[in-house]
Automatic annotation (TrEMBL):
It comes from the Bacteria. Its EC number is 1.1.1.130. The gene is yiaK. The keyword Oxidoreductase applies. Gene3D superfamilies: 1.10.1530.10, Hypothetical oxidoreductase yiak, domain 2 (3.30.1370.60). One of its GO terms (molecular function) is 3-dehydro-L-gulonate 2-dehydrogenase activity. Coiled coil: none annotated. The keyword Oxidoreductase applies. This is 3-dehydro-L-gulonate 2-dehydrogenase. It holds the Pfam family Ldh_2. Keywords: Oxidoreductase.
Amino acid sequence: MTEIKQVFISAEQMQQTFKKILLKHQFSLKKAEECATIFTTNSLDGIYTHGVNRFPRFVQYIQKGYVLPQNKPSRSHVFGGIEQWDGNLGSGPNNAKFATERVMKLAKKHGIGCVAMANTNHWMRGGAYGWQAAKEGFVFIGWTNTTANMPAWGATNPKLGNNPIVFATPYGEDALVLDMAMSQYSFGAMELAVMRGENLSVVGGYDKEGNITNEPQLILDSWRSLPVGFWKGAGLSFLLDVLTTILSNGLATHQISQKPAEMACSQVFIAIDLSKLPNHSSIAQTIESIIHDYKTSVPMQEGSSVSYPGERVLTTRKKNAEHGIPVLATVWEEVLSFLT
């Protein structure tokens, strides 16, 4: 088996490298720093598939004109705490950070806010915006549609997106964050497994002959990823696409799939200001009691433990901050090639 070589890059070095590359690709200084920080934080938290591993493709999309970094969102409609925006094919991470900031302002005013954005690009790791809002004291719900990459339940050809969704709430100085795609594994996770020469820990889809498998390359080749919860995940994916499209007045999955790449996506951002609730003072204690009970779970394997959504991120973040972010050497070489 071929040895997989890794290098360890400090967060500061990674952020500065990303920023230099983005500045070479028509980003303003502010937007370059912001976007580079999002990619670096995703990597620091162990979400390499939507951090450093995804960065080369992001730059290639800029070079091909799919992402227009000089463009910024424009508001198209307002009704109370609901706003529709056009992302104008700008940088997905920058647009999503902006939308999160905007929806928190709406929630401060109305208690709850909704920003729906059409014509934007891949936001990378949706959980980043859940952390952003929860750290500011807001409940956050957000989701995006994607190109068609998953079959409807009982079908063989991809008609659904894996439409990631994020739920987040404040917890102490950090947050509880669930960030999940509607497919058992995100395509980024399967691509990383291929790069590492690994199989998936559980079955993740079908091969071209219709055999269920845990071999990621076979699933990537067939475009037959397995929805979470089988028919339930397929149904949820369908409704997420419907809601995203109608709330944003943007493109649906079947329309995005006609583009040359995954671009012009539709996204929804919802925030709730917890300080407006009458039980605000007791919320922290309520969450603590739920987690305390959750932690009394009996592990299936002796010596293991259960973790709540977002808990392992904190452990990974600390480890990578101390020892450097592990990056496949081939990926870092590709990143550095954009500097020349």
